[in-house]
Amino acid sequence: MSGERDLIVEPIGKHHNRDAFSCGYEALDQYLKKLATQDVRRMVAAPFILTRESDRKTVIGYYTLSAFGISLQDLPDEIIKKLPAYPIVPVTLLGRLALDQQYKGQGLGEFLLIDALKRALKQSSQIAAAAVVVDAMDEKAAGFYRHFEFMDFPDKPGRLFLPMKTIGAIFMSR
Description:
Blueprint: E1 7-11, H1 26-42, E2 46-52, E3 61-71, H2 77-80, E4 88-99, H3 108-124, E5 131-135, H4 139-147, E6 151-152, E7 159-163, H5 164-172
Parallel strand pairs: 4-5
Antiparallel strand pairs: 1-2, 2-3, 3-4, 5-7, 6-7
Helix pairs in contact: 3-5
């Protein structure tokens, strides 16, 4: 990935030109353009913007993170055995991840995902989270996450998770 050193991920700000962003999914485009800053004010999601140090106005992509809880019984049995018998398990929700169409095919979706996972792992040492959970918009998105070892919830199509222990192991090996 050329120019990776110039890439930065930062919290959403007024200087970001969100109007020009187009990822091919209207819901994700509209979220960034109209709802992301409202979610920040309401403290329900933390949007992070991928941009370049040399051009911090242009939004290359974004993701959001939120605290979330899932029912222990929604997880696969082999995971349930490793967790305490709490009815609700704390996780980090990777609510949205989108890349502007003009930047696709350059490995920047993976760059965004890795940044989100690192951020979630770091935060989990201060606010416990057993996994990162995503709700894939379609099968193509689900395939993207499965490629990075995310596992399907048994009875929730499109919902996937990656245990925080796995995330920790990924970054310890790098």
